[in-house]
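The pair is quoted verbatim as follows:
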Amino acid sequence: MTTGAYIIILALGLAATSPMVIKWDLRRQILTSYSNKEKVAMFGLYTLRIDPNQLFERSPSGKNKMPWGELLRIEETEDYAYIYVDIDTALIIPKETIVEGKLEEFIDQAEKMIERFDK
């Protein structure tokens, strides 16, 4: 009986802690595989601007222009907005990190531009 109780307690402890350990280890592996310069380019300050023919992105890695006809759609969740550039590629915008502007207005305008240039 005591052995069974120990096994159950150990199993519950492993079930509770293993997802956190796996997430921590995955994060560590990903962050160690990039240089500091690459990390800054990925996680630095990004600016998005709506231009008449394209979505303009300025980031630490440079400037990028994405024609409206190449963007697929915009989806919004409680914490994030996703601008799909391809079926499996999106610009991910965490809502809590917005410094300037109103995300709702940006999304509405961008959706209109995507619909206008839809092929």
